[in-house]
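= Protein in question =
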Amino acid sequence: MNTHFQLFFPKTESAILDAILLPFEETTIKIHELKLADNRYLFQITHSNLNTLFDFSKSKDYQILHFDTNKSFIGVSYALNRAEGPFIVQTQSKWLLLIPFEHAMDPQVINRIITFNLNYELNAFVKEELLKKLNTAYPLSGHTGVGRLYTTVRRMKAEKELNIPLSWRTGFAIAVASGEGASEMSAREWTTFYTDLCENLKRDYPAMYNRLFAIK
């Protein structure tokens, strides 16, 4: 899924790069088997385990930018295959930008990175593909109160982290006060509604809340 990857630097500076978004629930990712083209790839790690293993054996060389759950820049590493044996990188990062080494960013630029944001091209194909992935990775349930609340918060959390356009977000949750679905709200209304739902989940079902917001 093509997206614009917007890097932020000090003093409100920013730079936009094109990248292909790849969400993964797996704890081990074999880069060679993905048959990646000569593009930048943004990996979103969605599992709750602390570590993810990236197997770069037999793959091309990459520069890797690491970001945490909140999209804050952590650091940079390099996958440079110089041996015949296995080459595995273990990381706690939840977002990783893989850049082909021949197109590597200047270290002086990298050292100034603070965070990033995602901006999608608003077209029907991207919307369909994105919602299909969200429905598969974060299905919604209305069978029980806890199921409805938990899966709604989980879905809204993913939409927030992916910076999904408001009009594309799920309308599954309805605000009692306004009668509006989440996809019909303003950015401020959506944030308030999401925060309230998180607090309700934390108060009524703390174990389920901790599954989503566990402190690493």
